[in-house]
Write a structure and sequence with these properties.
The complex is a heterotrimer of chains A (118), B (102) and C (490). With 118 residues, chain A is mostly helical. Chain A is built from six helices and no strands. With 102 residues, chain B is mainly α. Chain B has three helices and no strands. The longest helix of chain B has 31 residues. The radius of gyration of chain B is 17 Å and the shape is elongated. The chains are: A mainly alpha (118), B mainly alpha (102), C mainly alpha (490).
């Protein structure tokens, strides 16, 4: 039991080193000659306009919400996937029915034009 | 190290539930209210799982699935309502949503 | 672990399957029905509800369950209690469709989703009465509520409708999470969520069981709009489209009471000493708050909102009486049947006067209705008398049975509170009658055929329940006995 925890502790200590190393090496080896133009905020080659804290338009949010729902619904398929070899035809029927219900919802969302970028 | 018994989990879930309930009653931002409600639901989930483990019964874990799914459905409806109300009001502070006086 | 196929008898849950399936069909049918035939949606909905109603009536007298896991109790039971309530829910659905058709067209809300959400909500209500497992009660509660959250915001971008949906959603979700926590604690203290098994084990549950019961009461009290958890009701009822208000003032309330009766009477009677005083207290507070605050409301939708709070109080009396009186449950059932017709009838008249959305809903708009529309005014007056509880109306019979059950259950003081608050309620109900007949007024009234039919039918039903309550109460008694027998049989 304790050795398992030791592994995790070791992992926690060692794992940050790997992503940190390239950053540190870069910092140590790279030449540093700053000037005002280099210090400017960089945005795709053009100068920045306005504040960077702006509210985004939420046009696509329904798509995101539909994703959330379908993503969570997958939880009901997991038990069937985990034990498919012990389940009979009943479980197959249940899974098919469940997917059909999800498909109905998807078809509705599709028909409403939720899946298209407006 | 003291043994972690079921009481610890129940206490933790009660604490989480209370934080959530207080959040709903005290905060004014609709999104934060919403997060507090989610916290209350997840406190219940924690209690379900802890009891299921304690009782050696799988039912509790299955119940968590249902609560999670329902919570997702609520999230979807709630966020749509928040977006809609933000478009008309330009605010999601529930103190500014008071057309009707009760 | 061996997987066990639960025993299934889908035939007895057919009404729910029809309603849900019909909703899903409508969801897709929308894309196949050509534009000029879009007006079919309400009649299609009606067809589904009537089919389900026929099925349900055929199940009267059936007593059994389905979705039974091996060695467990059924998740869904179909007994007369459930069938009686399902009839109430389906009638609510049908009458709501009737009052919605023209209203939605003239307010520009005629989107097919309305009927789809209505059907889903009705199926949730039906499951509330049939659920025999706390988790199914929770799922049914959400299936009932989530469509209602959307429906109350259906008139967006009108700010009051959006606000109504937001408030309903936040408080509804808050109460559901309290309810779920109550279920979690019940599960922890008894090791099960199945109501018959909870019944067997709850007496040893101790403190945890009591806390769980308290949380379940709070959850239900929010849903049925009982004081002190009623704050959302007036705002939500005022802001939502009037047809939705009518639907939820009956459907959501009766749905909440359906599950409440099943849970408290069938699973928790042994904790009666703890919850009966709590429910009686909530009932008293609800009656006083609902009836007193209703007096000062100038808007008829708000007035009917407080009135619906008050009626939740009367049904609560029956719930409190249901452990110690054999007629408690049947009194509640009968009351809800009478309330269904009276309240939907009153809302149908309100819809007739609301010529534009949000206009014509003040009490002053009722001035002179007696001269302008004598029959409509007569019906409204009759509904108001029924809500007050003056004989011969369904409302009177309902109150009579409720108070009698309370007295049988040694809750005489509660019955007295009920009678006194009924007298107070006369003030604001009869003021509507007074305004209709004693003043002159102008105003447009939009009463199309479906609406007139609804008003006529509900008035007739209220009259029948008032003049001949006996057979209907016997029916309610048949429905209630099953629940009590289940208590005895475990």
């Amino acid at each position: 039991m304790l050795t398992d925890w030791q592994f995790i502790a070791l992992f926690v200590v060692l794992s940050p080193i790997f992503p940190a190393m390239p950053v540190i090496i870069n910092h140590l080896l790279g030449p540093k000659k700053p000037n005002p133009i280099k210090q400017q905020t960089y945005e795709c080659g053009i100068e920045t306009v306005g504040d960077s804290w702006v509210q985004f338009k939420v046009q696509y949010y329904i798509y995101a919400l539909v994703f959330v729902i379908f993503d969570i619904e997958a939880v009901f398929l997991f038990p069937i996937a985990a034990a498919y070899d012990q389940l009979g035809l009943f479980a197959v029927g249940a899974a098919v029915l469940f997917i059909f219900l999800l498909g109905d919802g998807l078809a509705y969302a599709w028909g409403r034009g939720v899946l298209e970028w407006v | 190290m003291p043994e972690v018994t079921i009481d610890w989990y129940v206490a933790l879930s009660v604490i989480l539930f209370s934080i959530g309930a207080l959040g709903v009653l005290l905060r004014r931002n609709a999104i934060i209210l919403f997060m507090s409600i989610e916290m209350m639901l997840n406190a219940a989930n924690l209690a379900f799982v802890a009891f299921a483990r304690h009782l050696g019964d799988l039912d509790g874990q299955v119940l968590v699935f249902f609560v999670i799914t329902v919570a997702a459905a609520e999230v979807a409806v709630g966020l749509v309502l928040i977006v809609t109300i933000f478009r008309t009001k330009k605010s999601i502070n529930i103190d500014e949503i008071h057309l009707m006086k009760g | 672990m061996e997987f066990q196929v639960p025993s299934l008898n889908l035939l007895i849950v057919l009404p729910v399957l029809i309603v849900t399936g019909w909703g899903m069909l409508l969801m897709l049918a929308e894309f196949f029905i050509p534009e000029e035939k879009k007006s079919w949606a309400p009649w299609l909905t009606m067809l589904g509800l009537v089919l389900a109603l026929i099925q349900t009536i055929g199940l009267w007298g059936y007593n059994g369950g389905t979705f039974t896991p091996k060695g467990g109790a059924p998740m869904v039971v179909v007994d007369n209690f459930a069938t009686f309530l399902n009839i109430i829910f389906l009638l609510t659905g049908i009458l709501t469709v009737l009052i919605s058709i023209h209203y939605l067209r003239r307010t520009g809300l005629d989107r097919p989703e309305y009927y789809m959400l209505l059907l889903f909500s009705v199926s949730g209500m039906m499951l509330m009465g049939m659920a025999n497992d706390l988790i199914l009660v929770f799922l049914a509660l959400e299936l009932l509520s989530i469509p209602l959250y959307i429906l109350s915001g259906f008139a967006w971008p009108r700010p009051d409708s959006e606000e109504s949906a937001m408030k309903y959603f936040l408080l509804g979700a808050f109460s559901s999470s309290i309810f779920v926590f109550g279920i979690a604690l019940t599960y922890g203290s008894t090791g099960t969520t199945s109501l018959p098994l909870v019944l067997e084990r709850i007496s040893d549950a101790g403190m945890l069981g009591l806390v769980a019961t308290a949380m379940l009461i709070v959850g239900f009290a929010f849903k049925v709009a009982a004081a002190p958890f009623h704050m959302w009701t007036p705002d939500v009822y005022e802001g939502a489209p009037t047809t939705v208000t009518a639907f939820m003032s009956v459907g959501a309330k009766v749905g909440g009471f359906a599950a409440m009766l099943r849970v408290f009477v069938a699973a928790l009677p042994q904790l009666g000493e703890a919850w009966v005083p709590a429910v009686a207290g909530v009932a008293t507070l609800t009656l006083i708050v609902g009836n007193v605050v209703a007096i000062v409301q100038p808007n008829i939708k708000r007035m009917l909102a407080y009135s619906s709070i008050a009626h939740a109080g009367y049904i609560m009396i029956a719930v409190a009486a249901s452990v110690n009186s054999p007629d408690g449950v049947s009194a509640a059932l009968f009351y809800m049947l009478a309330y269904l017709f009276t309240n939907l009838g009153a809302f149908a008249v309100v819809i007739a006067l609301e010529h534009k959305q949000g206009e014509g809903v003040m009490l002053d708009d009722y001035k002179g209705l007696g001269k302008r529309r004598p029959w409509l005014a007569l019906a409204m007056a009759y509904f108001m008398l029924s809500l007050t509880g003056v004989p011969p109306t369904g409302g009177f019979s309902g109150k009579f049975y409720v108070f009698r059950a309370a007295i049988e259950a040694d809750l005489l003081w509660l019955a007295i509170v009920g009678v006194i608050t009924s007298v107070i309620s006369g003030y604001y109900y009869l003021r509507v009658v007074y305004l209709m007949y004693m003043y002159d007024g102008e105003g447009e009234v939009v009463a199309n055929r479906a609406l007139v039919w609804t008003v006529g039918l509900t008035a007739l039903a209220t009259l029948v329940l008032g003049l001949l309550p006996g057979p209907w109460f016997d029916m309610a008694r048949d429905a209630a006995l099953q629940t009590v027998q289940m208590v005895a049989g475990g």
